Amino acid sequence: MILPKYSMGVGDRFAHQGKAQLKAFIKAKIAGVEIAPVWNKSNREHQIIHTMPGDVRKESDAAVKALGWKTPYFVDADHISLKNVDGFIDASDFFTLDVADFTGKSADDKSIKSFVEKHACRVGKLEIPGTGETFDITGEALEKIARKYLLAVQEAGKIYRKVESVKGKDNFVTEVSMDETDAPQTPVELFFILAAIADEKIPAQTIAPKFTGRFNKGVDYVGDISQFEKEFNQDLAVIAFAVKEFGLPENLKLSVHSGSDKFSIYAPIRKALAKHNAGLHIKTAGTTWLEEVIGLAQAGGEGLEIAKQIYVTALGRFDELCGPYATVIDIRKDRLPSADEVKKWNSAKFAETLRHDQSCANYNPNFRQLIHVGYKVAVEMGDRYYKALEEYEEIIGDNVSENVFDRHLKPVFF
Description:
Elements: E1 6-11, H1 18-30, E2 36-42, H2 43-49, H3 53-67, E3 74-80, E4 94-98, H4 109-118, E5 124-127, E6 134-137, H5 139-167, E7 173-177, H6 187-199, E8 206-208, H7 225-246, E9 253-256, H8 263-276, E10 280-284, H9 287-299, H10 301-316, H11 318-322, H12 339-343, H13 347-354, H14 365-372, H15 375-381, H16 383-391, H17 393-413
Parallel strand pairs: 1-2, 1-10, 2-3, 3-4, 4-7, 7-8, 8-9, 9-10
Antiparallel strand pairs: 5-6
């Protein structure tokens, strides 16, 4: 199973926007760029929303059938581990192996010694075409990299082989995720991580490293854009070189996690893809949920009341809802509007405050991030929320499609 050159992860927490999302990919295809949709939903989201991985498969298959999509699409077991992979195997054909928890923990001495000996030929001057640098590799540096990353790759190998034992070889797409680590990987670290992945015989088609800067949920990139651009270009060069050196899949490509709404780095990404003739997988998950709330607000009436209640309740449960996402949000509580203030808003004010339009004076990234992590409130509304999604399907769907195509697919791939 081959992942196409371009692919984008789309999450749909409440499983009502599959067709609206797919319409954006159809629009992109008509405009001349084929991008494979990858529906993803994490184990944590399934637990909070009380859904199952099979629900994602049903939704994606139904959308594809309804709209006549004839090219590849996938269902991602998002950020799974050995502990929870079993529940995803039947429904998924894309597996994001999340081994960040094992990064920094050392493998056994025998494994480290074996890795260092196998790759000792790299000690000295290492030239990776396209990076613009020559790297000095010492035996000490090689061992340090092995101690930091080898155990994580070994864990990825265990998860991969567990999936392979059920689905069979070449019947699914594998991604190795190391984005939730303490620091960005250097080009040399990424090179030897890929060496370890090859040693483990993991046919990775995407690799998700950690980049410099902050990738907060649902808001723009925060950091040095020029440094990101340098890292991104070097990572593309490292991957191209590692594919040849280690016999990794020829379509191995970078994956950008928490990629939704990172508007300021889309142009550098697009430029780099063209320069290196490289592929890309980019994950944009939680923003569909935000577009649902925007659509509800625009609908007025019951929709607007639901949107207001979501915010007011989330504000009152700030610590509970933000805690699990503390490392990927940055909310200034003093810049959040009060509950009493929001209760007086009309549809336009609410929608403009939530929609990620940086040219709009009403846009508030703090408000947006709080609602982003507040989807548990909608879960607790039960049928009231789901009925509203059906009642206001058209206006919500328009927002979802516009967000996926105009704000994400178009600036990244066109």
